[in-house]
């Protein structure tokens, strides 16, 4: 699968962060500090303008001390009561409609989803989960943005705040209540979509009897039959049967079938592996260029998408993955085979040809295993590149060295600290292999697809809670529609956060907002430089202000596109636990942060206006 | 009590709604390439109610368009953007899915179908490495286009585009051998493409299917009176015949000769003749037939005769009069013999030609002056001749566009036993060379083939020896040359030269100047045999040539 | 501050401003009030006179522009004072999708009441306000009177020491009004402090110990109801069985003290008269504390 951002281990993510970034916790504290100071300054400015310098200071001081005191007076019972109220309110506001919409989508999904794609599961899973995400976020948005303003409008809030309720409890209660409602909906949707995907994609085939041909081994002995299945769900499989007539329908459209004999007939069982949860252990990728000089990246073949970089064939150019924590326990052995198995890996090779080569013949490459400590290297293991498919193979335990010595993978080629290098080269001149870091991984035992699905739903849940927190916090001060717009802009900007940050940092073509507006009305293209004059300098100056503001805003903007783990399920990969913890931590940070922001916004507001 | 009642009533409504949704889903499911669709789609199909006939009633498309609540434009832009992004990120599954969503949103936007089908068949397919995957995306593009023709039943462009994809993408790609083989064996494709009513296996050649599509597109134009818009009719209507020609060539490339090839060429010849006899609208709006050139030329010369007989000598009189009016400089320039005129004199002579040119209208005017009783007839004749000349010009022009004469002759001679045999021999020679490495046999077969070719060319004097004819024969010559090289011989060897009958062809078609030396050698030899002795061996120019 | 004083306002004032901070309405001019434990205090004034604003300031629903309101010795913005307060808003702003029980239970939980106490309290309150039969019905199906009653119950859920009632009888029929007044008197009897505001003079007259009359945000009159309504120089005579001749004689007889004198007392004017005179006076001399002389017979 495509993984454009590296997933850091949880604690590294939390404390120190990856290259060029700081840890999540320090960042949270910095942002909190910044926001706190900003709020303090703004609050004092407004209070001072209204009530004079001294009284203003007094008000700010009291607001803060009260806030801190009230934090400790928070009563779980009141929060729960308010949460319960929020749930009842949500129910009354017909959140069930969302479920109805969801079922309509499922019923009509078959109009728009077809199974005639190479990887129907990917499409189905993306579709249902994306639909679920949008629906759940939509509900979260509507519930959270309109609830408090509605209370203000109907003045029911009067009877609440005249009770010994702390304002923070109102905010937190709302967040909790709507989260609970959202969770219930999400669970229903999740279960239904899981069933939907599995039911929709489950199918069976018959064996095309006319296609079956006997297969003999080298001694002319009959070892079974080859053939194909019938066409069902827009595809068929090649079939391999043993002499008992049992066997396997080979992988096509992302799944296989078992074939058994029942009453002298081959019966193709239901699809297997439609949903998978491959557990990859990713390594670190570096390159050697054609002269054998170490490089960060391979060469570009001019593709607009810079995710993969390439090694040229029949040169010293090599892609090198370094894996940690390798030991013999990772060895995978075939059950009924006497050989010693090997290290299971998954490999994705993107082939780029500069000439057609022999049409119909795949490009060959080689795998070598090397001990990064001793430099001991195995002989070349040749392979044929399967473009755009995952090549699941074993690196055999018994290897021969470059000097024909016998090597054991785990004893001789793994360094003392458990590191192992796997090197891949392309062997044909003028042809290229493209790689990105996640393109090779060690295959652990597949995780349960169901659990994986739950994890993906959890990431949707996290997004939902973040939206609810933002919506509730915004609605303490703003009227319903405005709070909704506020939250919607958070969501939209959140979905396009990389672009937003790109504009803020000036790395996107076309410059900042004013500059691109200027280009738009003067019909200037986005690449050419602005001529240097007073107007353009003014434009750039204003943009600088805008971009600084955008950059500050980006600090609190949730990155919804990276929060979503739908791709993992769609591509059949397990969502790494680190990512789940990161998402949950992020969620907690938003709930805490937004509750505090919501509290102080609420405090500044006169309830009875 | 009352709440319970209203509550139950609501529940019943919801259940009813839900229950109703299922039949809608069942009845309204859209017809697609792979699927017959729901009942409505079947009924629609049965009654021949294509989308473009009866407005849009594909529920899926309508629903999704309604669901955008008037924001279809925005939705479409977003989806195009998304499609581009998926393409950039090489996520072909989602790319195709996005195209399908787009198709529901803008099913009557012809360029969309063309553009995105092209994307699938031409751009996506080459991104994949495995030739089967490539073929798969080529057919997906074709399926996509086919879906477009379902929404736009009577759009000749889309249908003829389908002919192009099936013919040229499959039959002309580098992977054509594999593609054509897979296409023939792809039962599933034929099943869905022909809606479970596939043609018999021998007709599953991509060129034949392509011909069918082209014919369909033409019948839409003929029967439904649909316009072909900006398309050049000369090319549009030639397509089925060209597909048949390509088919004939392709099967010969596959090694099929004899009666099957002859029948195929005959069919191509018939189609070409029909094409020549088709009345097509020319660029000036008049209707022309490419085959009518002779008729019009004959008629025109007849009319011209008649015209000049109307008042003999009039033309000369006008010329004499005009000549008298020429300026002295021009006259003096004309007095100089053409071969030794200076540039200035040439210009003046050119002017004179223009000034002395007598148009039919002038003659007719003169006749009217001198013989008023013949004025009417003269004017009529003059305008008819002018019309005819116009027509002849158009026909000639369009014949050139379609390479009409060449294909006419070609489809004729390819049917002859000599040509068929010559092709078969060349094929056998190639096999002998490539498969069996039997050089002598290959050489013998080629030579036999070339002799027959020479006979064919002789028998069809209308076949112009130019690069079009030659490129096809040059492949044989190249092979032959390779064989000769391996035998340590060359075309310029006297013995080979003497037996090689296709020098004319080689000379006309050697665009890469591969055989420049050999041709020069051959020419010298020819002249030598005329002039009995020649010192050509030591010609220094040859050395400089060969050193180049 | 003595324990006896439940509410104290010091120069409490409120100016409503628009979004840009421009002064729009001066809703309350500096107000000094002290309300004592156990009394029923009425805030009286025409619409827009600042009664409700005062109550909202006391409750902390509004922030004072100047001055402050102290309740139970705490600032009005301090939430913890709410533990001992019950508030019935002008209209019952309650969640219409809850039923009576749920409503009271919900508010009970906001006071962190233990479940057991809460149940008993809810039950007794529902019975007290006479909604026993409608306890499971959603509030959206309630009549106006029922809504007021559940609103009152809600205000009493924590057995408050101080009850603020905003227009308690508005929208009630005569019987409902009577019941509300009885309720207020009963609360007084329980030793609770009640602050109510109303523009219905009869209500105030019937139940209040002390009243403050506000007009255009200004305090015009403050004092005990009986004192305010006493007229000093007038004698009221009510007689029976007087013949017309006798009636003629009465004027003379009164001087000579003949005939049957049934009643002779210092009569009260009606509150309505007092109120109107204050309003008239205030309009004639705006910006000044009303200083209405004890009403004379000719007025």
Describe this structure in words.
The complex is a heterotrimer of chains A (609), B (548) and C (299). Chain A is an alpha+beta fold and 609 residues long. Chain A is 48% helix and 19% strand. Chain A is built from 17 helices and 21 strands. In chain A, a hairpin with a 5-residue loop joins strand 3 and strand 4 (247-252). In chain A, helix 6 (120-154) packs antiparallel against helix 11. Chain A is globular, with a radius of gyration of 30 Å. Chain A starts with 9 loop residues before the first helix and ends in a 6-residue tail after the last helix. Chain B has 548 residues and is mainly α. In chain B, strands 1-2 form a two-stranded antiparallel sheet. Chain B contains 27 helices and 2 strands. The longest helix of chain B has 28 residues, at 375-402. The model of chain B is unreliable at 51-56 and 533-548 (pLDDT under 50). With 299 residues, chain C is an alpha/beta fold. Chain C is 34% helix and 25% strand. Chain C has 9 helices and 12 strands. Chain C has helices at 51-59, 100-110, 115-128, 144-155, 174-189, 201-207, 225-229, 244-256, 271-284; strands at 5-17, 23-36, 40-44, 66-71, 74-75, 85-88, 162-166, 193-198, 210-215, 218-224, 236-238, 263-265. In chain C, a hairpin with a 2-residue loop joins strand 9 (210-215) and strand 10 (218-224). Chain C is globular, with a radius of gyration of 23 Å. Mean pLDDT of chain C is 81; it is low at 294-299. Classes of the chains: A alpha+beta (609), B mainly alpha (548), C alpha/beta (299). Chains A and B meet through helix 5, helix 6 and strand 13 of A and helix 1, helix 3, helix 5, helix 7 and helix 10 of B.
Quick summary:
With 609 residues, chain A is α+β, with helices and mostly antiparallel strands.
